[in-house]
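Thread title: Can someone regenerate the structure for this chain?

I was given the following input by a collaborator and told the matching structure tokens would be attached. They weren't. Posting the sequence so someone can regenerate them.
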Amino acid sequence: MVEKNESNITMLFVRENMKRLRESHKLSNTEVAKVIRKSRQGYINYERGSRDISIHDLVTLSNYYGITLDEIVGNPFKLHKLAKLEYRTYEMKDGQLELSTPTTISAINDDIVIVKRDDLHLDFFWKTQLYHKNRMMLFDFHDRPYVSKIYYNTDNSGFFLIKDEHVVFNKASAESIIIKGVFLSTLTKDFHVEHFF
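Best answer:
Regenerated them for you:
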């Protein structure tokens, strides 16, 4: 009975990991099905758990995604916890520096997009398709990516600024704006430290 329960738990992990990997790579069920040479319904059965996936197909998927087999069959929540960095932190209190709770930077979320401005500046964006008024947005306009605030008029026309120049759009071309993310923060380094970023 214990072996069956362990097997069921492992299959839950596999299903969760397969779905997370497919969605994070923005792939359809049909596209992943082609990778493992199964029908769309065959792949859906794997992801839903109505059919057990073969070790051959697991190896094929791990090679396709460029990850280890452990990352497909392991506990997705436990594996995510490994993707954290902790830094010694000092905090200013009453004009004095005091050792504080370590700052943790987590990479467990697949919903972050990075815009590398240059070797010293990284901008982080939270993936969203929703417009956020008065916030810097990462978006596509006529299939080209931009970072700017977007200003809409009441009739859905508007503009955004790129290098201090107005890019104006009318109501019809506003439909070409595809929101990709909203600005979170910037990471800046003042000098080069090997392998920091």
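Residues 135 and 149 are 6 Å apart (CA to CA).
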